[in-house]
Predict the structure.
Amino acid sequence: MSIRDLDGGVEVELVTEPPGVVIVGGGFGGLEVARALQDGPARVTLIDRNNYSLFQPLLYQVATAALSPADVAVPIRTLFRGANTEILLDTVCAVDLERARVMTANGRAIPYRMLVLAPGSQYDYFGHEEWRTLALAPKTLEDAVAIRRRLLLAFEDAEGCEDPAERAALMTFVIVGGGPTGVEMAGAVAELARATLARDFRHIDPAAAQVLLIEAGPRILGGFTPALGSYAQEALERLGVRVLLGTPIEHIDERGVLAGGRRIEARTVIWGAGVRAAPVAQWLGVPAAARGAIAVEADFSLPGHPDVFVIGDAAQVRGEDGRPLPGLAAVAKQEGQYLGRLLRLRLEGKSARSPFRYRDYGTMATVGRSAAVASLRGWQLRGHFAWLTWGAVHIYFLIGFRNRLLVLINWLWAWLTYGRGARLITGIETRT
Amino acid sequence: MSIRDLDGGVEVELVTEPPGVVIVGGGFGGLEVARALQDGPARVTLIDRNNYSLFQPLLYQVATAALSPADVAVPIRTLFRGANTEILLDTVCAVDLERARVMTANGRAIPYRMLVLAPGSQYDYFGHEEWRTLALAPKTLEDAVAIRRRLLLAFEDAEGCEDPAERAALMTFVIVGGGPTGVEMAGAVAELARATLARDFRHIDPAAAQVLLIEAGPRILGGFTPALGSYAQEALERLGVRVLLGTPIEHIDERGVLAGGRRIEARTVIWGAGVRAAPVAQWLGVPAAARGAIAVEADFSLPGHPDVFVIGDAAQVRGEDGRPLPGLAAVAKQEGQYLGRLLRLRLEGKSARSPFRYRDYGTMATVGRSAAVASLRGWQLRGHFAWLTWGAVHIYFLIGFRNRLLVLINWLWAWLTYGRGARLITGIETRT
């Protein structure tokens, strides 16, 4: 390793000799690759910008004060104590394909023999980058805690506000996007207002809060059958959510939105519309397919680069029906498992195995405290049974016994009392 | 209520008619007063700058990644659902004694019939305000999360650092102040390094971290007997903490401290030395006694103002031995209980009761995972039994069944696995 001073900054160059497998991203896909290679013949370096792996499917519950950040995150280092795995807390900014190096924000140049890119996705504001700070999206722990702060502060500010128009705007919550994220967020915000906070204020009635779910398309949960979409919409409406269909968002500012030609005064706007891949195409200097993803070969390798692989949300992989696989945890996980085994075989000098095939166990979304929709291997489920299944599946896929137990206890407590344990307004964002 | 526009800002004037009891601060003392007056004959307004009440005795466990913020905090609104209690999220900046109003940072002027000031204390940097950002103190949830981030990042940065001197400085942790806060923090940092993180890195050995507890006086835990102080010092040294006595801190900068004439290179400095009262004297425009506290009458009233009361860390109250009572949760709680009953009686037109007498049930401090010292009504306890007592007492005084259960589970898990569940580096502080 050499340290050089450049313009006052320090460039640290890490030489791992011989170069091993470098994995970028400790999400569902990256973790599976690292797991398959643990205690194997090659050095493995896992790079993530956080020291934890995040269970994103439950992040909306952090944003709505039901769970604590530590309940949905597990420290990556605790998962890999095998001597051949190294964890680096750093942010990737480029890949030098010619010299086989990953360049990081902390000035490292990390050589690789094989490179796995599993950096996931980020929310897409359809070219309106100025909306990113106005309408937060539940993608990182910091985002989730900031959304929680804005939601809870809106009620606090409304309580102290005498101007009826301002108070109504403070108590109007717009959620953009009728996919699973938007549906789950809208249901949770409605419950927060109608159940958790119901008796806590003197000047406002939190149950009078307006929660609007705004979707540009003709129905919500487009990935599910129309029947399940209607069921979810009815369940949301029973919780008091107003669902606006065929209503594209045209403008967002500090005081509200313009949607479908109509102005809505709302101090809190939450973004759950489209996502796009992390900027892998930019790192690699190659063209991107739809939504910034990289069209990869059958073994997830970058065309023309048999030692560079892309998996998860950042990869465009076609299923058996020829359509790109969706950006789901299960897809990333299965891709990571497949690629991990493939790399392990290759490192051991064995030949590759049968091609990747995504096993679709189904998709689910929850609506409030006892309704959910699930599409599982041809079965269409809804109601209480789907909700219990949703809970069981999410507990099962959480990493770590401690997290499972704590989430279960928090849920039981919330279900029995309608309370939410993590109702804290923290952080330094200044109040407006 | 009237709203006036002043220089672009908005002054909101809240008129509660008739003026009731205003309580400033939702800590141990303020909560007890509010509780005693709940469902009583007077309106009660409880003002706090946070929406939660913090259980400060366990805050060092948030700072050292053992507990989540929500485990040691309870939303104030959930505690007071009686119709006569109003909660205001705001920061007090002055008291107008003549017009009987409390002025807040959000521009409110809140009239009171009786005023209870229970704002607690803050860390005192002995006139070196520039140390406040260099050496964080575990006083607020934000502080605790920032300390956690600095502690965990120090190990991450050391792992990627090749310069031996820089790496040694990253792995040196200075804790200033040998009172209970400093002792508990030093023990927890040593355990974090030696047990929790022991197997998690490849280039550094976290167990080689240096933890220094620096005390200006001749011994640690000056509030306990000398025998318990020595026992605690030995317990800390067994955990690998170096205790430097008679060593005043002379200087702190980004790269270390000067203490007792000796330079110590340390990237992480944690402050646990003296505290002083919140600026109540400044709010009131009256002179302060020692450590910024207000010398009050036997009924906690401000001399010459029989309707204004000060309790907790901000009040100077003398015990039976003539010495000021210490700044403990138990003192604030008992003062709040007494004053709450006194005000309730007065509001009901009854005469006052016997004078306040502090019942000293004792003090405790814990050192690591199975040692503690306790001084309980003349009994001097140490070792395992003191540690179990410490745990039981802290669980008992936590507010809320959910918090008790979650803390208990986190402790059991940590005790069994040596792990710490909340090992998250979050927040926006930039890395150096």
Chain B touches chain A through 55 residues (CB under 8 Å). The first strand of chain B starts at residue 2 and ends at 6. Residues 49 and 90 of chain B are 5 Å apart (CA to CA). Confidence is low (pLDDT under 50) at residues 1-16 of chain B.
